[in-house]
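Render this sequence as a predicted structure.
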Amino acid sequence: MYKGIALSFIVYEQQGRDKDLPAYLAEIAVGGFDGLEMRLDKFFGSKAASEAASVALRVDNQKMYTGLVEVALDDAAHGAQNTMAIAAAAERAVARDLSFRGVVLVPLAGEQPRDDATVDATIERVRQLASSLQRRGAWLALHNDAAESADGCRILRRMLDATAGDANIGLALDVAWCHRGGGDPAAIASAYKDRLKTLHLRQSRGGVWQEELGDGDVDLRAVDKVARPLKHEVLLVVELNHEAETRQARRQVDDLKLSRQYLRKVFTV
């Protein structure tokens, strides 16, 4: 079942508007979203930052369901330090009573390919982080970007298979990256449905990411068919991530409204 409809902060960061948090929180509310996914290390990386973010969220009656972290945990020099920093930021988010559920982790930053030995070493750090988060009342969900999605989501599947016994490690499936990497989002969601925590929704047409959520290259109806009947809660996160070829013809708030309408039509929420 779907529990929570959030917007990813990413589109605002791309536009350089993330520095004015109150303004885009108000826009998100007008667009019909009741929560968001924020970059955890930016907005909760320190006590002062978490205080400012929490105040802004409460003013607009917004929830922060999840915190996104994109960090190369395979970095031997800083992996352990990064793990501790993520856990500390999550602890601050949990303490703020913002309906925070967990951390969405991109474990391998960038597009650089990794061999199996590197991936396996990263998995150990993922396990350590998941254990730290569990003690703080938060879950960890693996999110797929370029590296994790390549070759039909090979690395993502390897990580999920290796952590099958870890109850606190779930899946935050990015359907657009999965499709771009040659994977079938509905099939991946089905294979790991018991661990599905969030669906990150973005659409492309002709291989180009669109400014709003709608029909296109990714069969979102097939994804909904897998996720909607699940007994546990699944968060929906609309991620309007633009790229150089993305045609932007409308105001951001209008893209939000169209995306929210599409969620009602296809996901019936």
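Summary. The first strand starts at residue 2 and ends at 8. The domain at 2-267 is CATH 3.20.20.150 (TIM Barrel).
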